[in-house]
């Protein structure tokens, strides 16, 4: 199905992108606009403001939101409306916007999304909890109060599963279990015990305050879906790498943000940037941690697929694993090292986690919907290195190391 | 073990009771003070303020907090300190208090605790989420930041389990399961599938916004226990009935609150009050809902037992079911009706729940610690009816019916 078919089929469906100025939200907004959605962005620009407090900024020169949006129109894009307010605090504006627009879908990226930032200190812990939980709850509450039949797509994380099930393939959100316990009356076996088969939400095992809020989000979704029939897709995303998409590549004013600092930089992007400026690749611990990855181009494609294949009224919360491959941190470092000749530096792990873990992930939902994964071998690592080199004069090397201790 | 032994053994251990002015918090504070704890109450009096908005008040004439506390001293009780601030908002005062007092334990009752109130409207939903989640997180965050090795005892609810496991005995917090799925490498059986045995937090199934916040609290506890070693006891309490305890009976100025309204009144107390004033007993639906119950005297005893048998450093979150018996709503109504001759009125159920359910609950933890349950047959129902009759002139009959629709 090409873009024009989508446009014809959808007759300008409306979507609100909450957090549409951020690293995933911005390219998603442009991509949805490109393929025919009428996009409205809500963003309180909190990510840019956190940069100010961290005395850090995107390696790429991100333009102010209105300049970005004008550039999108100047490059032939459809107009995208923008509202600056805090959905965790300004419920009435959120409700009014939903009532006015009657969107078909809301994409919810409006959470504090860095685990290391969430672990920096008491203030960032409390901000992450207060912001993320109230934001998610306000969206659900406003959808119900508005009476509009909105499909909510939420960006979650693979991290909700924890990393403890060696050799076991992580399913997409739900797990079949046999509950073992004392049965009172029926079906007793010879031990007086019984097993009942059930499908449950995968037992969560968060590793940071940030991940914890995502496991709590899952209970908001479970409840509002069960009690009010809200249609929800929760995307358990891997670690994102890459910077630009077809749309953000159109004009430098559309460039996506690129975080390289110890709080917000994701591991592969940090390695590629370190290689570009000749800084040793900093591996936490022995690097035996296995993580799931996805390229930013696949992130935007997955959101497109999730919106075009919305759940029906009455369906339970739909959970997709939004990742395309898994690697150990050490493997990634070795790959970047062999591409670039940069040395690897092993450091004490600031995180409270197992030294190594296996990770096998089911991701057939998106593959069945037609996702063609953009994997590490596709030359996109070179593109990230080029971006890093191009903007290396903007790099503050003192911000590279992760300083947030998780214990 | 009598009270004097406890005092000798404990040498005035210190406890902060968060929400110590409420229905459970007040008698608990007096009881802990009586048996030798040095008690400090923190309460922002939110429960009294909600009554003002609901244009409703306790059937019993509850005195202002300082008058209550003076009466406790006048009746021979030890001095109880009191602080009026909001733990969900005023983190710095909470942290300072913990750092200053270095309490051995904190009992956390400081949450909005009525399911019907949490379902009244968008505002009460959002208040319940914002208050309960930030309150619980602030307590945990402050314990960690203070560096004090505090045992946190939290009042939760049986409602986190949901009511869906017919015939299955609900365990105390944790459930043994066999996880069924695709195993990647090891232990494959003939189908290529595998089962891994694990003990998990009982899969939550909240029935209201209030209950949802308690399931989210469980994830706060899980995380802070795992990452920071915070010692936590979570008490999954049944529906409380009764009014007074030995301590609140000492003086009318010490009387406990008694809620009879559709939002805050619990079912058995509402029936007993309805009987006392000759109002039909209002049963929601056919009354087939089975619930777990506990008398307020056993609530305070359970908190005593939980504090005196604290978990060790390194123990996982300890979860006790704090209930002593189960009954269907219809059984309760019939019991009260036969005691008093009051008729039963069946009404449409405003809640979104199964018409009937079985409920079998494991509660051996408290029984093993020495709890002697105060059950329905002990004549305490008569006591509640006497209280209801004595203060019947304070009853506003227009507040009796539950008006909060859950869909």
Structural notes for this entry:
Two copies of one chain form a homodimer. With 407 residues, chain A is α/β, with parallel strands linked by helices. Helix content of chain A is 37%, strand content 19%. In chain A, helix 9 packs parallel to helix 11 and helix 9 packs across helix 13. In chain A, strands 3-2-1-4-5-9-13 form a seven-stranded parallel β-sheet, sandwiched between helices. Chain A is globular, with a radius of gyration of 21 Å. The first copy, chain A, contains 13 helices and 16 strands. At the A-B interface, helix 7, strand 7, strand 8 and helix 8 of A face helix 7, strand 7, strand 8 and helix 8 of B. Strand 7 of chain A pairs antiparallel with strand 7 of chain B, so a sheet runs across the interface.
Summary of the model, kept short:
Two copies of one chain form a homodimer. With 407 residues, chain A is of the alpha/beta class. In chain A, 37% of the residues lie in helices and 19% in strands.
| Shape label of chain A | globular
- Total beta strands of chain A: 16
Number of helices of chain A: 13
Q: Approximately how much helix is present in the residues of chain A?
A: 25-40%
Tell me the fraction of residues in β-strands of chain A, as a range.
Answer: 15-25%
Q: Structural class, judged by helices and strands of chain A?
A: alpha/beta
What's the quaternary structure here? Answer: homodimer
């Amino acid at each position: 199905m090409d873009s024009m078919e989508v446009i014809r089929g959808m007759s300008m469906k409306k979507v609100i992108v909450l957090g549409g100025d951020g690293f995933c939200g911005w390219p998603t907004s442009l991509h949805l606009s490109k393929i025919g959605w009428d996009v409205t962005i809500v963003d309180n620009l909190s990510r840019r403001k956190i940069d100010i407090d961290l005395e850090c900024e995107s390696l790429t020169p991100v333009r102010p939101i209105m300049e970005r949006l004008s550039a999108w129109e100047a490059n032939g894009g459809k107009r995208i409306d923008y509202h600056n307010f805090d959905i965790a605090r300004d419920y009435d504006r959120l409700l009014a916007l939903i009532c006015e627009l009657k969107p078909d879908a809301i994409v919810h990226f409006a959470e504090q999304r860095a685990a290391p930032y969430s672990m920096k200190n008491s203030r960032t812990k409390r901000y992450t909890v207060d912001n993320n939980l109230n934001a998610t709850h306000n969206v659900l509450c406003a959808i119900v109060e508005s009476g509009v039949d909105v499909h909510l797509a939420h960006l979650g994380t693979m991290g909700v599963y924890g990393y403890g099930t060696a050799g076991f393939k992580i399913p997409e959100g739900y797990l079949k279990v046999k509950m073992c316990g004392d049965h009172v009356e029926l079906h007793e076996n010879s031990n007086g015990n019984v097993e009942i088969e059930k499908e449950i939400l995968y037992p969560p095992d968060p590793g940071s305050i940030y991940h914890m809020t995502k496991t709590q989000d899952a209970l908001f979704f479970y409840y509002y879906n069960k009690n009010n029939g809200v249609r929800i897709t929760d995307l358990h995303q891997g670690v994102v790498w890459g910077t630009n998409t077809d749309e953000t590549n159109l004009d430098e004013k559309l460039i996506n943000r690129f975080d390289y600092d110890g709080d917000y930089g994701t591991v592969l992007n940090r390695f590629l940037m370190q290689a570009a400026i000749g800084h040793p690749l900093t591996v936490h611990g022995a690097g035996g941690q296995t993580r799931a990855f996805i390229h930013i181009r696949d992130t935007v494609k997955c959101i497109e697929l999730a919106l075009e294949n919305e759940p029906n009224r009455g369906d339970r919360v739909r959970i997709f694993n939004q990742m395309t491959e898994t690697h150990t941190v050490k493997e990634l470092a070795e790959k970047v090292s062999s591409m670039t000749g940069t040395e690897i530096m092993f450091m004490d792990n600031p995180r409270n986690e197992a030294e190594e873990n296996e990770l096998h992930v089911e991701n057939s939902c998106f593959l069945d919907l037609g996702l063609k994964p953009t994997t590490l071998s596709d030359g996109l690592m070179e593109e990230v290195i080029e971006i890093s080199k191009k903007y290396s004069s903007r790099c503050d090397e003192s911000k590279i190391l992760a300083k947030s201790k998780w214990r």
